[in-house]
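Hello again,

I reread your note about wanting to compare the complex against the isolated chains. To keep things tidy I'm splitting this into two emails, and this first one only covers the full assembly. Below are the input lines as submitted, including protein chains and any nucleic acid or small-molecule components. They are followed by the predicted structure of everything together. The single-chain runs will come separately.
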Amino acid sequence: MKRCLITAVTNTAALKIQYAFEKNGINAEVVRLPARYTGAGCAFGVEISEADEFKAYKVLSVSDVSYGKFIRTDGNIR
Amino acid sequence: MIYLDNAATSFPKPASIYGALNKCLNECQGNPGRGGHLPSRMASKALYEARLSLSELFHSSTPENVVFTHNATEALNTAIKGLAKKNSHILISDIEHNSVRRAVIKLQEEKIEYSIYKTGENASKTLDSVRQNIRPNTCMLVACHKSNICSRELPIAALGRLCKKYGIYFVVDASQSAGSCDIDINKIYADALCAPGHKGLYGIMGGGFILFNNVEAEKISTVFEGGSGVNSKDDEMPNVLPERLEAGTLPLPAICTMRAGADFVKKVGADRIGEKERALMMRAKDMLLHTKGIEVYCPDENDGCILLFNFKNIDCEDGAALLDKSGICVRAGLHCSPLAHNSIQTPMGGAVRASFGYFNSPREVELFYKEVKRIACGVY
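Full-complex prediction:
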């Protein structure tokens, strides 16, 4: 299954995103991100199914949650 | 044993605390916010849920504004030193603990001055004293919500409003009030609320927190620098909360028990807990006020669970030692609050403090009174 990553500024921010998703029925997992996605080491993000990408974007747009980029695991950054 | 030293640390703890500690040690073996493996993820989840629980308890909608520390002293030092501005002035009350008094004394080395405002008579006079002491360069006011040596409560909502009017930071020391009264950080206009986890929140020792409210993270100077789990190549700590102020590994077992304690407080009700503690204190005070050979301090102040007194025939330390021989745990001396003792005008050596907790009973108060009376009569 294709996956989508949402970058977060910190581990706490990633957890806040994860909890916002799960509250809205989106399965999500906090993951460490390779430097190729963030330009620096030691970063966190949230991984979801690509099928939930649009729903996830909607959740974040109405939540008080800061987030970075949406990255498809095929490397496509949105 | 009758434990009456709840102002130092609460005992016993609710049963759920032991379960929470066991669960943490068994399920959260990793370092939170560090690795990507399951034990670290479990620890991170437990940590985040503790932030959620504490922010909810104090009516904040931003769990990331909960910054964990190792105790209230660290929390107060981090908030005060982090928010203090160069060449400025800080106001502290005359009942502050050494965690505030010594912090502002140290800040004098950085040309930050401090003044002390008076409390005690009534809210109006406390506010007048603040107004009289405020200066054009005052940047912060620190208020101890409830004293750690008597049952005095400061008018924090009114103080908070005053701070907003003057545009200065308001730092609240809730060490003796968190868990025993309902505190809404928005209604008291606090910029930072500091408390330990092991008193009214029933956690084990080793945890504390600051709850910030609408303070921009980058405006808070860091007191400690170190690992934050993110952006390791950066020379400075991250400019977002809570990571900016959480350098190094956090005391997760203490935090998990603090969370369980916060949940206990929510279930029972903070006001209900405080009311029970206050009733026990009032019962003891009524009896001691009518006991020959006993001096009770602040007899008209009833907003807490603390009773401060002295034996007229012996030193407070000797009195506390005699009570200990009878299995009654109280604390004598200055309670790390010489400023407050000076304000209340206890003798040089301080006084005896009995601090009642939610798990004390009226029967224990009776036994405490009986022993105090015996010592006051010279029978020991």
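For quick reference: The two ends of chain A are 19 Å apart (CA to CA).

B.
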